Amino acid sequence: MRRINKGLAALTSVALAFTIAACGEEKSGSTETKAADPASLSAELTWWDTSDAKNEGPAFQELIANFNKTYPNVKINYQSVPFAEAQNKFKTAAAAKTGAPDILRAEVAWVPEFASLGYLYSLDGSDLLADESDYLAAPMASNKFDGKTYGVPQVTDSLALLYNKELVEKAGVQVPKTWAELKTAAQAVKQKTGVDGLYVNAAGYFALPFMYGEGGDLVDTTGKKIVVNSEQNVAGLNVAKDLIASGASVKPSATDSYGTMMTLFKEKKVAFIVNGPWEVNNIKTAPAFGGVENLGIAPVPAGSAKAGAPIGGHNYVIWSGVPQEKAAAAVAFVKFLNSAESQAFLAGKLGLLPTRKSAYDVASVKSNAVVSAFKPVAEAAVSRPWIPEGGQFFGPLDQMATEVLIQNKDAKGSLDAVAKKYKAEVVPSYATN
């Protein structure tokens, strides 16, 4: 594949001197623009925010308002784009070279894919990476592709076991550390309180803790092998199936598994779920739940091999088609959004986990019980394969989860179908079992 490599370079925080170097097979060149102070920087930028519009969006719009206090002449066209649509929508617009946003909040797995297609600026040498050592290594790694850096990590996360403290205490059960203990605890909650004990979400991403727990994975990038249909993954999915079949878990909804899970949890109709920090604000503002003080957070339970949840999160990236006259403003905006102060603000508002080490030194973050509970969860998370195809793994996994956890199909057969899909459409150069 022919690629055009572009780079952002040399934006200083004082002079805001910006250089864009575009180098490809046919042309190369550079242009420099300077602004004496933030007030003289003028541009109109479009930002696609893929966070939850109702739960998280207002906090990001507050950040925009704060940004404009310093940069009054940089207009931010804020657009909330549904997460489920954003990946393909961005690729379509970037390929057409029209309609793509200047800045995108991208899921971690999208960055290597977009970079491989030539849709993102390399940030190497730019002011955005001047303090790269302040970022946690794991979330920063998702921004790397082919020796270059194409984004900065906005937030990191992982899945944890969330529970209703009141219901757990009423049932007299301990917080479970294994799936077997969770099965027992969930059944006890239902017996003693009349409330359902557990909801297992039927989605590919949420199936990973069961698969990781038995020592499984999706692909072996070192050996270039598809391993999604391994015996370990079959065993992990059977653990999840048993939780549902035994009545420990509610049978997942066939129409809106995730939404149903969150509604039941917020209304205190289920005691245990597996989810991430992005839902903390949603939970703590739910009228019936009892506030964040009633929210328990623990690592996901372990299988026979280990306890493991995937690294998640989002990164800020800049479209490679951003006009040169806008580039300095785009970098200034991303730098503001991702400062330690902004990350601390989001941690306080939403319970999101900062990616900057210095943000954890901010007093409000240090005293944040939710962040403190999730930080070790994220630090122990399992790294996903940061390859261009990584963002395409979950469509087939979602279909598999529906078949296995809702339609009660055989785990091995459904995983074999995923492996065939990976081989045919996602990583055709990889070997299969």
Structure description:
The chain is α/β, with parallel strands linked by helices. The protein is built from 16 helices and 18 strands. The strands form 5 sheets. It has a 5-stranded mixed sheet. Strands 14-11-15-10-16 form a 5-stranded mixed sheet. A 3-stranded antiparallel sheet has the order 1-2-3, with helices on one face. The longest helix has 16 residues, at 411-426. Mean pLDDT is 91; it is low at 1-36.
Task: Record the SSE blueprint.
Blueprint: E1 5-9, E2 18-23, E3 28-33, E4 43-49, H1 57-70, E5 74-80, H2 83-96, E6 103-107, H3 110-116, H4 137-141, E7 144-145, E8 148-149, E9 152-157, E10 160-164, H5 165-171, H6 179-193, E11 196-199, H7 204-213, E12 219-220, E13 225-226, H8 231-245, E14 249-250, H9 257-266, E15 270-275, H10 280-284, E16 295-299, E17 312-318, H11 324-337, H12 340-350, H13 363-366, H14 369-379, H15 394-406, H16 411-426, E18 431-432
Parallel strand pairs: 4-5, 4-6, 11-14, 11-15, 13-18
Antiparallel strand pairs: 1-2, 2-3, 6-17, 7-8, 9-17, 10-15, 10-16, 12-13
Q: Give a count of the beta strands, DSSP E runs of length 2 or more.
A: 18
What's the arrangement of strands in the largest beta sheet?
5-4-6-17-9
Average pLDDT, all residues:
91
What fraction, in percent, of the residue positions are helical?
25-40%
Q: In a few lines, what is going on in this structure?
A:
Belongs to the bacterial solute-binding protein 1 family. The protein has 433 residues and is α/β, with parallel strands linked by helices.
